[in-house]
Amino acid sequence: MFKVHAVPPDRLPALLQAMPKAELHIHIEGSLEPELIFKLAQRNGVQLPYANEAAMRAAYAFTDLQSFLDLYYAGASVLLHEQDFYDMAWAYFEKAAADHVVRAELFFDPQTHTARGVPMAAVIEGLSRACRDAQAQLNISADLILCFLRHLPEADALLTLEAALPWRAHFIGVGLDSSEVGNPPENFSRVFAKARALGLHVVAHAGEEGPPAYIWSALKELKVERIDHGVQAIHDAELMAYLAQQQTPLTVCPLSNLKLCVFDQLRDHNLGQMLEAGLCVTINSDDPAYFGGYLNDNYLQTFAALHLGAQQAYKLAANSIEASFATLAQKRLWMHELKLCFQGFSEQD
Ligand code: ADE
Ligand code: ZN
Which parts of the chain sit beneath pLDDT 70? Predict the structure, then answer.
């Protein structure tokens, strides 16, 4: 067991910044900043319903998940060409490198784009090229996870998976996102079974706004390896015990939960309670361009609001690395670097 020494509160932000970490829950379309949306709109001749970037940002006052998704899909309408997808992902990777992200697993929503006539090739090849450059130029290991939109029928998801198969080598897994309540995981059992048969990793959003029953269903029906969000598990003691026993990773997104009114205040967030209960919790940014912060902003604000310390920092970073779909050799290397980082901070005391 690695011994984590206490770090003085004024040194904690530097430690959170410096520690190597993985980001496992980032919708790449949710990293589109208004400046890039306007640039791409101009480049592609797309009309936007806002006069400028500030007017667009001013509209980012959400009351729930759906109020956000409406703007998120509108923002993605400027993406037409392979280079657009590359530019979007590259902008994210530059931010991730500054946050010392060593591993990023990017969600993307092909149906949002193919429904507008954008070829699957443009979407996947643009994102995939950015992932390769992230490794070569920024030393970030990056992979793609294809998400199905749960507000659409499973038949659409099956067609989407089929359409993406020529690029099977360019993505490592599938996920399930979009409007949760009323669209339970079990509606997608067949497409997830097919994805698993293809050797793809499987994850799903569950328990963001939806009930614990959706988390059970994602685990039992879809057989997911990780739960995205999962914060509603707190209302089901049996589920909490199961998640702790199985060590199923939860990709929690505190600033997202705050902006979408899942919690009224960051200090009300249950991340600390879930850590205490022994769950495998990780911190992630979800849609950083819309929720006011990238990965380190999520760490910094959550640690300040919940009064967390070095012990929790180590656990969260270690969980993120271990819960990733990277190779064992990569995980070993990053765990070694994580330990060196913490040792460096304790020696400076
Ligand atoms: N798509 C993008 N962000 C999402 C979120 N937080 N929940 C569900 N679907 C999403
Ligand atoms: Zn999400």
Answer: 347-349
Ligand 1 midpoint to CA 330 (Å): 28
- What was the pLDDT predicted at 347? 67
Q: What digits encode the pLDDT tens for the residues 261-295?
A: 999 999 999 999 999 999 999 999 999 999 999 99
Through-space distance between the first and last CA atoms of the chain, rounded to whole angstroms: 21
Give residue 28 CA to ligand 1 midpoint distance, Å: 11
E strand or H helix at 39, and its extent?
helix 34-44
Residue of the CA atom closest to atom 8 of ligand 1: 178
CA separation for the pair 299, 315 (Å, rounded): 12
Q: Is 256 in the pocket of ligand 1 (CB under 6 A)?
A: yes
- How is the beta sheet containing 226-229 ordered, strand by strand? 21-27, 101-108, 141-149, 173-177, 201-206, 226-229, 250-252, 281-283
Global pTM? 0.98
Q: In the numeric block, which tokens belong to residue 35?
A: 């400046």
The CATH code for residues 11-347 is 3.20.20.140
**What's the CA gap between 58 and 23, in Å, rounded?**
27
d(CA 73, CA 183): 18
Determine the pLDDT at residue 1.
82
